[in-house]
């Protein structure tokens, strides 16, 4: 592996590790803010929702700090490993990054402390405002970073002068349709991660008939978020694929492993044995019409194959290999779609059980059991989704403008490898501890103290969870 | 003042705030093993920085983000040029950040001792390395004709940069001790130990900063570009440091903390002034002509205008709510009180 591969691997792995933590942070912040709002507004349900807020807030906190520290790595990495890229895009790419820090990071990291530790110091409305500021901060943060990422996929509002991209229109950068699509998709999937996290934990306790009053509430909130989140993800994801067919045709063709231009109506490959060297599929099971439906929402229409697009790219950008690792993109896409569909079906099945008869949701044990097992699935879908979008645009870093190999720093492979080993060791430890603590705390539930606790924020007395004196302070 | 100059100084301000804020929380973590004798004392010390360290740390992300957007070439050269140092800082910050959380996960003395070391080492390493980086900034890196930095790990450590590292390390320890004087109840043993520590490390910090300034002026000739007025800053840094000793002996804790803060301010300004007066952001040790100039490494005008609006709106807002955060958690900490049940 040379410097480019090592640096790519480092960026990919640290980003995926980082996103493991932050996708939960982004989604869960909103769920908790909603729970606390209900506790604040509805006096009759204050106790139940107060407990739920305290319990899930505690889990949120465990995960939060790790997201922050891994975020520093992200911010430094562009300069450390991709200084040529930084030179090229700094005029443009740095702005959303700086906006993310100034508008979101400070807000989140300050108000999370005020919300949790300020329980007995702040008035209830201030506490409520604090958690909302955290929730809003996480969404703003997601927006700017995704906007920056989307610019790399679909650069707009710039011109290249003396080997540097120069900003010509910031409005175009902000209203980049790709950015809003990506944001909707990332946002939706973060909600899905958090919703199934809450669903799984609630189901775990409902199966054991512990604190059913609290967990049947959180189950319902989770279900609503899961339904909204999955619909959001599916719709935006479908649109994203269609948009990619237009502005990143190679990515779309790789997602479908379509080597030659398709027939019309285009079939859709369910499984395929891909031979990248021979530039063909040795074997494939295809479903008729579905390809056209995916690409055009229509029963007819053809789309270009990888080989044809390769020729177009050669003509446009100069002779090179513009074919991404097809099998990776193809399979990642299928895993993501399969999980997404399963989660969508689960969310709506849950809504159906809820609607059909009173208490039906809390007593359908096979459904609850499935929810517990589904906790990791949204993370896998996220992970594979990023693989599709980032591997599908190889070898470009800034689409059509800068390749990955051109963007890398002048570091030695030894330096990068040493750093990579260190980062991996720490990240694996972090993820292990995060999962361990989350599961220990989640299992313990409300009435037992978890066997391991946060020193910074030990399990609170969930019974009042900071809502004592609510009436007095209001 | 044009926008390039404005942003150069806003980045200086961001780094200053970072060193000022994270300086004391690093300091507290570094001093903890020598100050705390019992578990309750350990937690009380952590409690003094508990609600703040995370918000403080964001200032370094801000510094990097602002540098990226306003001086992309400088950002790329510094962060890739001192790659190994930044890797070490990142690893240290990662381990230290989670040590707050994970220290008490397992009820075992060895486990706690491990995370205490992580929190100690995770604060010593960046405290030292930021000094090295600041010293290397003014001393310069082997920047070649293509504005790329050559040379490896060994090139980072020169006598001057090592003294720079020791200076920030000691300064942060002093600053941390002064911060403790404001955050601990005055009738506790810990408070008295913190005072002793402030005096001891303050004396050493004075020696270090004198060595740093003398080396900068005499042996390295790095501050030659200063006219008469900019001399004021290093001199002020030294004077404020000397005042701390006076303040400590007269039990004027707030004054002592203000003074160690001002020392950090003046020291950081001195570093940035040494760059500014030469018109360079990263001098080259290979050939003076290869150094990165202030103008060439800055972003285009449009980006700077945009960033000025953004910074003008959000920086005061952030500083405002962070101050409020400190106000909410202003209550002094006592080792025995609730530390074991209420977190931190």
Could you characterize what this model shows?
The complex is a heterodimer of chains A (474) and B (344). With 474 residues, chain A is mainly alpha-helical. Chain A folds into 2 domains: 3-248 and 324-473, no CATH class; 253-322, no CATH class. Chain A is 71% helix and 6% strand. Chain A is built from 17 helices and 6 strands. Chain A has helices at 3-41, 46-81, 83-117, 124-153, 170-174, 177-207, 212-247, 249-256, 290-296, 306-317, 326-356, 360-363, 365-373, 377-391, 404-407, 413-444, 470-473; strands at residues 158-161, 164-167, 268-275, 280-287, 396-398, 402-403. Chain A has a two-stranded antiparallel ribbon with strand order 1-2. Chain A has a two-stranded antiparallel ribbon with strand order 3-4. Chain A has a two-stranded antiparallel ribbon with strand order 5-6. In chain A, helix 1 runs antiparallel to helix 4 (124-153). The longest helix of chain A is centred in the N-terminal third of the chain and has 39 residues, at 3-41. Chain A is globular. Chain B is mostly helical and 344 residues long. Chain B has a single domain (3-139, 150-282, 289-328), classed as Formate dehydrogenase/DMSO reductase fold (Up-down Bundle), CATH 1.20.1630. In chain B, 74% of the residues lie in helices and 1% in strands. Chain B has helices spanning 3-35, 39-49, 53-70, 72-81, 83-102, 109-139, 159-183, 189-219, 232-249, 253-276, 294-297, 301-328; strands spanning 280-282, 292-293. Chain B has a two-stranded antiparallel ribbon. In chain B, helix 1 (3-35) runs antiparallel to helix 3 and helix 1 (3-35) packs across helix 10. Chain B is globular and about 60 Å long. Residues 337-344 of chain B have low confidence and may be disordered. Chains A and B meet through helix 2, helix 3 and helix 16 of A and helix 3, helix 4, helix 5 and helix 12 of B.
């Amino acid at each position: 592996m040379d410097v480019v591969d090592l640096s790519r691997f480092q960026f990919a792995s640290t980003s995926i590790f980082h996103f493991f933590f932050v996708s939960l942070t982004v989604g869960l912040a909103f769920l908790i803010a909603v729970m606390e709002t209900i506790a604040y507004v509805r006096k009759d349900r204050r106790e139940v929702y107060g407990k739920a807020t305290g319990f899930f807030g505690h889990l949120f906190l465990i995960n939060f700090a790790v997201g922050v520290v891994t975020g520093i790595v992200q911010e430094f990495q562009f300069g450390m490993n991709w200084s040529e890229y930084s030179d090229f895009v700094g005029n443009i790419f740095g702005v959303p990054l700086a906006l993310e820090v100034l508008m979101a990071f400070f807000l989140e990291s300050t108000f999370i402390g005020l919300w949790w530790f300020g329980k007995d110091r702040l008035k209830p409305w201030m506490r409520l405002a604090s958690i909302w500021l955290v929730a809003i901060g996480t969404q703003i943060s997601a927006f700017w970073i995704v906007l920056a990422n989307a610019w790399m996929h679909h650069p707009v509002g710039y011109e290249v002068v003396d080997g540097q991209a120069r900003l010509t229109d910031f409005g175009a950068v902000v209203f980049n349709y790709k950015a809003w699509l990506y944001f909707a998709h990332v946002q939706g999937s973060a909600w899905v991660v958090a919703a199934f996290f809450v669903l799984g934990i609630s189901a775990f306790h409902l199966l054991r008939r512990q604190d059913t009053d609290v967990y049947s509430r959180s189950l319902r909130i989770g279900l609503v978020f899961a339904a909204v989140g999955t619909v959001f993800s599916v719709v935006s994801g479908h649109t994203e694929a269609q948009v990619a067919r237009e502005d990143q045709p190679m990515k779309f063709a790789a997602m479908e492993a379509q080597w030659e231009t398709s027939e019309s109506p285009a079939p859709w490959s369910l499984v395929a044995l891909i031979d990248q060297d021979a530039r063909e599929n040795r074997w494939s099971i295809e479903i008729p019409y579905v390809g056209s439906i995916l690409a055009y929402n229509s029963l007819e229409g053809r789309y270009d194959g990888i080989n044809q697009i390769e020729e177009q790219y050669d003509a446009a950008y100069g002779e090179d290999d513009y074919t991404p690792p097809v099998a990776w993109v193809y399979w990642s896409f299928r895993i993501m779609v399969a999980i997404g569909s399963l989660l969508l079906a689960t969310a709506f099945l849950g809504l159906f059980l809820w609607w059909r008869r009173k208490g039906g949701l809390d007593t359908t044990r096979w459904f609850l059991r499935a929810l517990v097992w589904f906790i990791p699935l949204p993370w896998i879908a996220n992970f594979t989704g990023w693989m599709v979008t980032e591997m599908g645009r190889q070898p470009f870093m800034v689409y059509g403008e800068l390749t990955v190999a051109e963007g890398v720093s002048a570091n030695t492979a030894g330096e990068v490898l040493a750093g990579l080993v260190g980062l991996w060791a720490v990240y694996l430890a972090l993820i292990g501890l995060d999962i361990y603590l989350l599961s220990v705390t989640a299992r313990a539930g409300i009435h037992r103290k978890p066997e391991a606790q946060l020193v910074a924020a030990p399990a609170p007395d969930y019974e009042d969870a900071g809502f004592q004196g609510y009436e007095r302070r209001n | 003042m044009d926008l390039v100059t404005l942003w150069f100084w806003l980045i200086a301000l961001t780094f200053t705030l970072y060193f000022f804020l994270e300086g004391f929380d690093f300091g507290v973590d570094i001093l903890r093993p020598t100050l705390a004798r019992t578990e309750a004392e350990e937690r009380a010390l952590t409690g003094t920085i508990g609600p703040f360290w995370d918000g403080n740390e964001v200032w370094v992300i801000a510094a990097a983000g602002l540098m990226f957007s306003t001086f992309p070439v400088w950002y790329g050269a510094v962060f890739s040029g001192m790659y190994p140092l930044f890797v070490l800082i990142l690893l240290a910050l990662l381990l230290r950040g989670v040590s707050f959380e994970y220290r008490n996960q397992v009820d075992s003395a060895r486990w706690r001792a491990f995370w205490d070391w992580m929190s100690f080492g995770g604060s010593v390493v960046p405290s030292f390395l930021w000094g090295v980086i600041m010293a290397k900034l003014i001393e310069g890196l082997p920047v070649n004709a293509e504005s790329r930095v050559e040379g490896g790990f060994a090139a980072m450590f020169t006598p001057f940069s090592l003294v720079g590292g020791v200076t920030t390390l000691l300064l942060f320890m002093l600053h941390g001790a002064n911060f403790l004087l404001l955050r601990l109840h005055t009738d506790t043993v810990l408070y008295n130990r913190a005072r002793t520590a402030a005096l001891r490390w303050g004396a050493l910090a004075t020696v270090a900063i004198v060595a740093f300034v003398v080396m900068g002026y005499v042996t390295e000739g790095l501050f030659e570009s200063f006219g008469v007025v900019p001399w004021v800053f290093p001199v002020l840094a030294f004077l404020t440091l000397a005042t701390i000793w006076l303040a400590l002996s007269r039990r004027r804790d707030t004054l002592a903390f203000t003074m160690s803060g001002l020392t950090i301010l003046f020291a950081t300004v001195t570093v940035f002034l040494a760059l500014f007066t030469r018109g360079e952001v990263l001098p080259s040790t290979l050939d003076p002509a290869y150094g990165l100039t202030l103008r060439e490494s800055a972003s285009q005008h449009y980006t700077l205008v945009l960033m000025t609006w953004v910074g003008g709106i959000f920086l005061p807002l952030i500083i405002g709510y962070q101050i409020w955060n400190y106000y909410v958690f202003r209550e002094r900490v006592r080792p025995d009180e609730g530390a074991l049940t209420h977190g931190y």
